[in-house]
Structures are given as C-alpha cells and as structure tokens.
Amino acid sequence: MQILEVAPRDGLQNESTQLSTDDKVELVARAVSAGARRVEVTSFVHPKAVPQLADAEDVMARVERVEGVRYAGLVMNERGLDRAVAAGVDEVDIVVVASDTFCQRNQNMTTWQACDVAAGLVSRARDAGLFTTVTIGASFGCPFEGDVPVARLREVVLRVVDARPDELALADTIGVAVPSDIIDRAGCAIEVAGPQIGSRLHLHDTRNTAIANAVAALEVGVETLDASIGGAGGCPFAPNATGNVATEDLAYLFGRMGVDTGLDLDSLIDSAVWLEERLGKELPSALARAGGFPPA
Amino acid sequence: MQILEVAPRDGLQNESTQLSTDDKVELVARAVSAGARRVEVTSFVHPKAVPQLADAEDVMARVERVEGVRYAGLVMNERGLDRAVAAGVDEVDIVVVASDTFCQRNQNMTTWQACDVAAGLVSRARDAGLFTTVTIGASFGCPFEGDVPVARLREVVLRVVDARPDELALADTIGVAVPSDIIDRAGCAIEVAGPQIGSRLHLHDTRNTAIANAVAALEVGVETLDASIGGAGGCPFAPNATGNVATEDLAYLFGRMGVDTGLDLDSLIDSAVWLEERLGKELPSALARAGGFPPA
C-alpha cells in the first residue's frame, strides 16, 4: 500500500500556529526520510484564503529533491496551476466536492462547474508533463446535506473520469465512512475509472473508523492512502475531533499485517513528536503515545 | 453483534478518581438504558488490590435489575466466587493470562496454574447456576515477553476449553492486535472451542486498531465484544495511551454498517459526557467529540 504524506499541506492548513518555512522544509524531508515516495508539499491557492501556506513557492524552492519521490501541490484554478508549474511540482492535486452545497462553500461553484474546471486543469497539467490526481471531497457524507447517495457519487466519478486524470481519489472529508462504505464507494470508483486510472483514498479518523477503512481499502484494491504525520490537520466541521489519519498509525497497522508501505515506524513516531513540539500541542497519533510493538 | 459493557469494572479500576457507589449504580443503569444486555458491574477481588471497586457488594445490592440483562462480576479465586454468588451476580468472569511472566505479575502463578484455578472456579460457578466466561489475557502480545506465539495461545485455549466454560474470550490487554491477528487467533479459538462455547473479544484501542479489529471479529464469527462507555479504562502498560474501545465508537461503526447491536448511540454519547464529568477528565471516545452522522 502506497502512502501519500499530506501533513505539510492538509496537516498545517487549519492550524492556528504557523510553521516557519524552515520547519515546513524539514517536515517534508522527515516524511521522505521515513519512506514517503509522494508528499503533498503545499497548496497554490490565494494566500488570503490559506495564510498558513502563503510561502508555497519558498517551500518548494528549498525542498531538497530526492530521486524517486514525487512532490505535489494542490491547485484550485488556472492561476494556481501556473504557480505550481513554475514552482516545479511533480504532481498536482485538483479538488471537486460531491455535494453542491459544500462545493459552493469550498470553491464558490456547483459540483458540475467544479468538474469542468478540473477537466481544464487536468488537461493543462498533463500537457505540462505533470502527474494529475483529482480528489472528490465529501464522497462519504456532507456536513451540510448529510448522506451523499452512491448514485450521485457515481455521476461525479463519471464526470471526473471523462477528463482522464492519472488518479482519482475519494475523500472522507468529515470522517463518517465505515468499511462497508469503502467497499461500496471505492469499489464503484475503481470499476467506473477502469485500470488506466489509479485509485486513492483520503481518510479522516474523526469517528475512529479510519484504520478499519484502510483495511477495507486494501481489500477492495485501493492503491494509495493519504495520511498525515501525527494525525495533524483537524476536521473543520468537528472542531474538537480528530482529523487526518496518522501516518504512523497506518504504518503500524500495515507493518503488523505484513503489508509493505516502505515506511519506518520509529522514524515517523520521532517526527510526530517533533511536529507536536513545533505546533505546541498534542496531536491525535496513537503510536506516538503508545509506541510500537514489540518494543525495539 | 452483542456488546458487553465493561466501564463499571474495567473502566473504573485504574482511575485515580474514585466514583461514589451512587455514580457506579447510575453508570450501570445508563448502560442498560442505552441497550446493553450484559454489564460487568464490578470485581470481587481483595479491596486492597483494587480499592476503586471495594464497594462491590453495595453496588450489586443497589443496582436495579432489568429482565433480560445479565449482571457480571470478575472473580480471581474461591473467596471472590463466594462473594459474587452471595452478591447475586448472573455471570462470573474468570481470568488467565497467556504468558507466564504476565500471569505471575497479575495473579502470582503460572499460566497452567491459573488454568487449574479457572477450571475449579468454572465448575463451582456452574454448580451455582451462573453463566461462566473465561478471559485469556495478553492473547495478542505480552508487555514483558513480547509476541505470544499462536501455538502457545492454542495450548492455553485447549486447557481452558477442558473446563467447559459457557464462553471463552481473548483479550488484547495491551492493544497490539491488528485484523489479521483477529482472524488467526479468534479463528483458532472458535475452532478449538467448538459450537458449544461462546466467543468473545476484549479489545483495547491503544494503537488505534480496535475498530478495525471489531470488523475482523464480525467477519470471523465472534459473538460478543467488550466495550467501555467513553473508552474509560486506560492501558496500564502505556500510561498516556487510549485503553478500552469506546462503546459509542462501536455503536457508530456497527450502526452505519447495518449490524444490529441493540445500542442507542445518542444515549451512549450522553453517558460518555456524564462519565467525563464524574471522572473530571476527557475520555478517548471519538463519538463524544464528533457526534453521530447524519446529525439528528
């Protein structure tokens, strides 16, 4: 199972404490050193929208590139894509949201409008030689509309697949999915997308289901899971709850199950503790509290 | 899936804050009111060993019995069994530990000696008309010896099964199991025990795997899972870590998967918050933080 490390982007973008550019560069280096082969480094959105990532170009310029690692940036529009290309990313992550209400609030357009924008961005990014991945937010439930029907999600997947991205991801943005949802919805996406388009899941542990969902993802054939060192990055719709699943929690799970992730658990735990110090708060990581087993 | 509520015993026995007898009686009533049909009410061990549960007889005497609910007590020896019978429990939980080192520290005897003691207790409790359940501690790993081989666990299961208890449980006492372990070990126990002996699992969420393990338990045919309101009850071998899996987290999981537990999620969340107030601390429950989905 491949892990895409998202702490530098999704992990930091909602934090009240802003990390220095130096610390962000170190966080990326730590992820790579722990075995990550894909890292979402930053977001090329307007600095006013996400001031935490206003130094996107600086971070990309100072990251020491390691061969075999893909460095990614999130883009929402043409301007963001221009910046990402200029900054030298290897891949771009493009977002649409499965429910109209949430999509309007997130990017000020309907889901179908967002799919059209995404198609244009995929086409241009592909022409620029970049790997393209499209994430469908709220694929398992919407904080405003509640349940998102599978039939609706299937329609959104069909529209996204039309643009032929290299990869398609479903995001459990508010952490409501259970394993049967993963089987149904990731299974649907994989079937609709076909073998030419990679499959990825973005899981949140808000309701303690992310690790169970990761096991279901493995069973249904998902290739890549997003994860965040320390579990950094909360759930904006459940302010006191856990957000992104912790990379080290996934590393423990898959390690003990004999599933290769290429990740080093002790190195991840060390980085989770380092990130807690930098952010000045405890992160939700279970493994940073409990340690691995059996002890080294 | 049947849930055995263990907050009144396992949830409270390591807490520094001692609940009043009134509060313990209320906790049991809350569990039953939320749908629990088995509750581990208390422990009949020496009050010096577990001062938190020194009022075992008082709690049992004051619990208002509801038809169809079984009220259980933990017993370690003959004296404890006498007290449990006198107190009017419906079932007794008897413990052995799969590794000798841990068994010596827990009950001052080897695993085989503990199996002999358990056999005597099962026989006497059965004669007294009680339901008997034996829990094998450290079935998935030992804090002192590390990995516990499946072959060793199988031997312990064989010895316990010889005593013909009504039910046999494997406990992940230190929270190290992953789903493949559940399939292997609970599968082994179910096969060795045969259809006449019920199967139960005691899961800890120390390394964030309890919910995934609960799904594996469902797949392999485990009938009953222990859980604790709020996730009360830490892991004594990982002091800062999460312990018992939270009842409401399991209720959310199974509820969204369409698996009947008879539990009411909102009632459990309400009781988790009540227990946090009584203990004066935040408990690990994810659902108490995030709330159910879709919102009521």
Automatic annotation (TrEMBL), chains A, B:
Record Gene3D superfamilies: Aldolase class I
Q: Which GO terms describe its biological process?
A: ketone body biosynthetic process; L-leucine catabolic process
What UniProt keywords apply to this chain's record, in alphabetical order? Answer: Lyase, Metal-binding
Tell me the ranges covered by the Pyruvate carboxyltransferase domain, including all copies: 1-269
Example GO molecular function term?
Answer: metal ion binding
Q: List the Pfam families.
A: HMGL-like
Q: Which family does it belong to?
A: Belongs to the HMG-CoA lyase family.
Recorded hits in PANTHER family, A to Z, give: HYDROXYMETHYLGLUTARYL-COA LYASE (PTHR42738)
Entry protein name: Hydroxymethylglutaryl-CoA lyase
Q: Which organism is it from?
A: Solicola gregarius
Taxonomic classification, please? Answer: Bacteria, Bacillati, Actinomycetota, Actinomycetes, Propionibacteriales
